[in-house]
Design a protein that fits this description.
- The protein is built from five helices and two strands.
- By secondary structure, the protein is mainly alpha-helical.
- The chain has one domain.
- It is elongated and about 65 Å long.
- This is DNA topoisomerase IV.
Length: about 160
């Protein structure tokens, strides 16, 4: 069916969006970056702009690599035991690959929202953190929906194995 290609496109789009947003936010930040405010609205916890940049890039790369490798292993049929569980061309294999790639995209969306939160803390005169309240609630909802979809795929797979298909 090739549903996994939609997941790959979504993942690629979120990678491009993260790069664009992260570079924009990095350019807009001062030399000291706050990631927590005190009760008075002052900076409580800070780090340097370079630490924020390299920490964000390293986190992004490590999460993407760690989450894409299992999908690539299944897609390329690299491991014989996974080849039997997820044969190429099976609909549930396609669903699982689509889920894996789109889940990495959801993680990237969460990282983008976190970067915007850092931006809103450090540029309070331009944008307030309250403007992002919808997005803060969106991330756990997306994770819950995606985990629910994973369980649905796994239940379908277990049923197909039980029926011997």
């Amino acid at each position: 069916m090739m549903y996994y290609r939609f997941g790959k496109v979504f993942h690629f789009a979120t990678v491009l969006l993260f790069v664009f947003v992260f570079l924009y936010i990095y350019a807009a930040l001062a030399d000291i970056v706050a990631y927590q405010l005190d009760e008075g609205g002052g900076f409580d916890k800070v780090l340097t702009k370079e630490t924020f940049f390299y920490g964000g890039v390293i986190t992004f790369i490590l999460l993407n690599i760690a989450l894409v490798i299992p999908a690539k292993v299944i897609e390329n049929q690299s491991v014989p035991s996974l080849r039997r569980i997820f044969p190429k061309g099976e609909l549930l294999t396609d669903y699982m690959l689509a889920w894996m790639y789109s889940f990495v995209g959801i993680v990237n969306v969460a990282l983008i929202i976190m970067a915007f939160f850092i931006h809103s803390i450090n540029n309070q005169h331009e944008i307030s953190a309250g403007d992002f309240s919808f997005f803060f609630y969106l991330v756990p909802i997306l994770f819950t929906v995606w985990i629910g979809a994973l369980f649905w795929i796994l239940i379908k797979k277990f049923n197909s194995v039980k029926l011997g298909q």
